[in-house]
Amino acid sequence: MSNLEKTIAKAFLEMAEGLENGSYGVRPKIALTGMGSEHGEENAMAAAKMAAARGVDVYYIGTLEAEGVTTVKVADEDEGHKKMEQMVENHEVDGAVTMHFPFPIGVSTVGRVVTPAKGKEMFVANTTGTSSADRIEGMIKNAVYGIIAAKASGVQNPTVGILNVDGARQTEMALKQLQEGGYEFQFANSARADGGAVMRGNDVLQGTPDVMVTDSLTGNVLIKMLSAYTTGGSFEATGYGYGPGIGKGYEKLILIISRASGAPLIANALEFAAQLVRGKVFQVAAEEFAKAEKAGLSKILEARKAAAKPAAEEEEVKAPPAEPVTASIPGIEVMDLEDAVKALWKAGIYAESGMGCTGPLVMMSEANHAKALEILQKAGYVG
C-alpha cells in the first residue's frame, strides 16, 4: 500500500470513528497562553496557526493576532494565566495548553514523545506534578494515569513498561497484583536480551512500551531530553510536551509545555489536547479508575503504607480551620511535603501541599506566609 493510500485509509477510519462516537466535525476549543516563552510570543502564535490548520479552534491568550486564530487580549503573563483558568472553569474552552500550572497532589501529567531510534510515539508517566508523596505509590498510580492518556489518545491496548529507577521492582509487584485482581493491561517486554517489564535506557530510545512508567522528576528529565536532543536543549522541537494533568476525580483539561518549547511541539500539544477531548478523556479516566479500584488498587496501596510505617505511630496532627491559600513556599523535598504541612498545622497555621512548575509547594494564606517560612526554616524543610 502506498503512502497516499495509507493516508486516505487513515482519513476514512478517523471519519468512521468520529461518526460512531459523535465527534466527527467537532473542532475542540483549546486555549493557549502565549506569553512567557523563551522564544517569544511569535513562536506561540506560529504554533496556534499550525494547530488551527489541523482542525483545532485555538484561543490564543496574549497580544498577537492572526487569521484563523481567536485572540483573547491580555496585558501580561499573569493576567493571561488567570484568564486561561477562568475560561477553563467556565467551559468557554474544552481545555488549555500552558507553561505552568499548580496541580494538586494526586494529579500529574502524562507526557508524549517521539522516540529517536524508531520514530515511535511513547507516553511518559509522569512528567510534572506529583501523584503521591510516596514514591512507589506515585509510580503505581502513574501506570494507571498513563493508560488513561494512551487510551484517550486512541491506543486501545497500551503496553506498560517500568523504567529501571528506584522503586521499579516494588511497582512491578504491585501492578502484577492489580493484574491478578482483574485490571486488564499488558506489560511490555524489554528489548534487551533478558527481557522483562523493567525497562532500560535502550527501551527509552526505542519506545519499547506504549507507556513508560517512572517518577515525575525522572520523567521530566526524560521528556526534556527526548524533545530537545537534536537542538542542544534550548529548543524543544519534537513530541507533544509534558501532557495533561490526570488524577482521580480531576476534570480540568490542562496540558503543560515549557518555556523552551518550540512551535512544532506546541502545535502538537494543542492537537494532543483536541485528541483527548474527542477521546473523552474524563470518561476514560472514570472507567479506568473504577476498574483499578475493583481490582483492589486502594487495598494494594494501603498494604504498602502499612508495611512502610514505623513501629511507633507518629503523633496525630489535625488541620486548623480551612482558609484561602494564596501564598506559597517552594524548595521542599517532595518526600517531606506532607510532614512540612503538618508542622504548620501543629503551629496553628492552615496549609496545603501542591505542585508548581518549579516543584513541590506548601501553600498558606498571605497573612501567614512570613511566619510559615520561619517555622519551616527552623525545622530544616527549607534553606
From TrEMBL:
GO biological process, one term: fatty acid biosynthetic process
Active-site residues annotated for this sequence: C357
InterPro entries: FA_synthesis, Gly_reductase_pC_asu
Gene Ontology MF terms: acyltransferase activity, transferring groups other than amino-acyl groups
Protein name, per record: Glycine reductase
Organism: Oscillibacter hominis
